[in-house]
User: Fold this.
Amino acid sequence: MPAVIDASKCNGCELCDLYCPLDVIHMEGEVAVVRYPEECWHCGACRQECARGAVSFDFWQMVSV
Assistant:
């Protein structure tokens, strides 16, 4: 799963966009969005730079068996 950005926590500082090595995060107005989720390497650079905790990764996914 790619990075997930909580728009309610994002303050538009653009650090996640700046530090993403694959340029998958872009600003749409004042909020960061993951524009190319299939290209995300899950490196965590965006999450590490986000002081507001707006970036997370959902690695666990519940599935029916």
Helices lie at 15-19, 45-49. The mean pLDDT is 91. The first strand starts at residue 3 and ends at 5. The longest helix spans residues 15-19.
